[in-house]
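Section 3.1 - Work completed
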Amino acid sequence: MSPSIVGIDIGTNTLRAVEVRNPDKARPTVLRYHEVPLPAGAVNGGEVLEPHTVAAALKVLWSGGGFRSRQVVLGMGSQRVLARDLSVPKMSLARIRQSLPFEVQDLLPVPVADALLDFYPISESTTEHGATVNGLLIAAVKAAVVANVAAARMAGLTTIDVDLIPFAVSRLLVTRPGIDGVVAVIDLGATTTSVVITRQGVPQFVRIIPTGGDDVTQAVATGLQMDAATADLLKRRVGLLAAAGARARGPRSGIHVDELSVNEPVPTDEAGAEIIAETMHDQLGSVVTTLNYYANTRPSDPVTAIVLSGGGARMPGLPEAVSKLTRLGVSTGDPLSTVGLASAIDAEALRLNGAAYTVALGLALGRAA
């Protein structure tokens, strides 16, 4: 294996990459990191729609970031990726993977021929039918993966692995630090929110919710008739801290705007605060529903803590709101806690913006897992 690997996070608006030396060591070293913007429409929800455009952006990324390695790991985490519980007769992992096309057609929204399948073993048990392996079925629409790999190839890069983004995030924030217990990792991205529940660092449950921070930005922009950049700045400044004075425009069940309240609003931000709170009402409602589903199906393994990650996790007041809704301790994950930084890196700048590179760093480290 190359002494350094680059993880690439293909976002809707931005390409981010992190190069790591010795990813198989206890404390790998981050050598380089960089990001470049993407033209509108080139990528949607992490899926490359215009491979040539993305390839050109990757070349700019490599040049601007000074990346040395051309061996890369890509991530998939859109709604075109499915993760479901699956139990199969005990056999070698190679044979399980070979048998998947014959076992899982009824679980897939597309024909088996149009999907890439993998199996992540978690535990073994004995049933009336014999020894069983319990795990997670991972299925991705083949065309989406092929397009991302093609863009990397056009840029002169070699894709050595394609990883599930929720796995990469939980690996970096829970598995590597060795956080014990049953932990829910909630990653709030631009277009999706993923929930991974781990037990002793091993993923047990994965759900990808098709909403993210861009939905909040768009709601503010539409409601206040402003451009997206201004709306995004307002969202990042006001967040849920100003939700105390906001009121829902109609009766709701479940999470209420008042439950998202933390501090009194700045008067000029009241309208934005109300929109943010109402939009987050729906997003956090989906997260809570997901956590409740897990609790109902696995009552013996209750979630004991929540770790937040992703750009959305930086929204003011969000940790307090999630803690209030779930009645659990909530922390924001530190993606740099188990890695070293090369002397040439601007460590302060990276630490200030480290959350943005969580996915890329987790992907780079996943090659050694």
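Second construct:
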Amino acid sequence: MERSFFTLVLLLFVLTNQVTSQVRDCYSDQYLQEDLNQNPRRLKIMEEIERHTSMFKHHSDLRSTSVVTIPVVVHILYNEAAENISDEQIRSQIDVLNKDFRRLNSDATTVWPQAVDAGVEFCLASVDPYGKTTSGITRSFTSCLHLPVPEII
């Protein structure tokens, strides 16, 4: 009786160990492939981004200690007044983003210890693509309650 009990416990241990030690797969490549199948133009866009990044990397005067500042435009789409957030809220979130990318956030030593200063900062754009002065914030009222996800062209 003891021997069969021991055998049963051993068998359960082996089976449990096999189930829990299975490797979990990352499906990002599969998701990407599905996306490329549905939108073949995505590959061309990805290749263009890689080409542009490579050109920038090889032709820029970046040093490992330099900080790259990226001007951004924040688009606020709102349906109710409460959704039309203040400029101060936007600036506050850009400050948080900058602290995270520069690893200056208050929890930098306790969360994600492998993180590093990316040497990237963000600021609100001051000039639009046409050379006109901008605040870097656009606001648009919409009557849509749920906005559709834009399709990549």
